[in-house]
UniProtKB/TrEMBL annotation:
<keyword id="KW-0808">Transferase</keyword>
<dbReference type="Pfam" id="PF02348">
    <property type="entry name" value="CTP_transf_3"/>
</dbReference>
<keyword id="KW-0548">Nucleotidyltransferase</keyword>
<dbReference type="InterPro" id="IPR003329">
    <property type="entry name" value="Cytidylyl_trans"/>
</dbReference>
<comment type="pathway">
    <text>Nucleotide-sugar biosynthesis; CMP-3-deoxy-D-manno-octulosonate biosynthesis; CMP-3-deoxy-D-manno-octulosonate from 3-deoxy-D-manno-octulosonate and CTP: step 1/1.</text>
</comment>
<comment type="similarity">
    <text>Belongs to the KdsB family.</text>
</comment>
<dbReference type="InterPro" id="IPR029044">
    <property type="entry name" value="Nucleotide-diphossugar_trans"/>
</dbReference>
<dbReference type="GO" id="GO:0008690">
    <property type="term" value="F:3-deoxy-manno-octulosonate cytidylyltransferase activity"/>
</dbReference>
<comment type="function">
    <text>Activates KDO (a required 8-carbon sugar) for incorporation into bacterial lipopolysaccharide in Gram-negative bacteria.</text>
</comment>
<keyword id="KW-0963">Cytoplasm</keyword>
<protein>
    <recommendedName>
        <fullName>3-deoxy-manno-octulosonate cytidylyltransferase</fullName>
        <ecNumber>2.7.7.38</ecNumber>
    </recommendedName>
</protein>
<keyword id="KW-0448">Lipopolysaccharide biosynthesis</keyword>
<dbReference type="InterPro" id="IPR004528">
    <property type="entry name" value="KdsB"/>
</dbReference>
Length: 249
């Protein structure tokens, strides 16, 4: 059984109440839930720290649990939510779906869930990557990049383009190497998720402000599935305006 969990905090520095923002007559969190429900998930549950979000999700027929407000990361919030659900033994994969991506494609979720279909070959952790298609993407520190080994496991994540090309000017890098960008969609085996919540902040994580580096430093392998589909996260009022324009409202 594959369980989809959606962390949704009310507090946001740049966009307070973000999950409840109206996007063409539906809240952002309702759109995320609706997209997730089209994927191959047995169950979709919102994990929130705010009763307003909890009631809203329940009002539109979704499932939600109320978690503590002081979790340092969405990973910790997911683990508490899984515990509140009784840690069902038939769950072999938990997919962490970002609550601020109302246009997430079900195929992206399925790409990760499919990696866990066979227990013998299932990864500990999986995430999603896509090819970088523009110089703006490549050099944006807001869009982390990733390099992989020959088996599709992550070697490193960075806000800086990797690898550095000694023999070419930065403007030529895309023409001489296939760069990959990381999309913030994760899946875990339940036992691994529990272990991740017990890890202290690592030096690489602190330097790059990327939680997944903590896992790599601790020795966990992160399998990467590739997609050509983009992600569209909402963090600012400007992003809300772009989302509404995309919806034609």
């Amino acid at each position: 059984m594959v369980l989809g969990l959606i962390p949704a905090r009310f507090a946001s520095t740049r966009l307070p109440g973000k999950p409840l923002v109206d996007l063409g007559g539906l809240s952002m969190i309702q759109r995320v839930v609706a997209q997730a429900q089209q994927a191959n998930l047995a169950r979709v549950v919102v994990a929130t720290d705010d009763e307003r979000i909890l009631r809203h999700v329940q009002d539109f027929g979704g499932e939600a649990v109320l978690t503590r407000p002081d979790h340092p990361s969405g990973t910790d919030r997911l683990w508490e939510a899984f515990q509140q659900l009784g840690r069902p033994a038939d769950v072999h994969c938990i997919v962490n779906i970002q609550g601020d991506e109302p246009f997430i494609h079900p195929a992206q979720i399925n790409a990760l869930a499919d990696l866990f279909a066979q227990e013998a070959t299932a990864p500990a952790i999986a995430t999603l990557v896509k090819p970088v298609v523009s110089e703006e993407e490549l050099f944006s520190p807001h869009l982390p990049k990733v390099v992989l080994d020959q088996q599709g496991n992550a070697l490193y994540f960075s806000r800086h383009p990797l690898p550095y090309q000694r023999g070419h000017a930065p403007a030529e890098w895309l023409a001489h190497h296939r760069y990959l960008r990381h999309l913030g969609l994760y899946a875990y085996q339940p036992a691994v998720l529990e272990q991740l919540t017990q890890l202290p902040v690592s030096s690489l994580e602190a330097a790059e402000s990327l939680e997944q580096l903590r896992w790599l430093e601790a020795g966990f392998r992160i399998r990467c599935a590739q997609t050509e589909l983009d992600a569209f996260g909402i963090d600012t009022p400007e992003d809300v305006a772009k989302a509404r324009a995309r919806l034609g409202v």
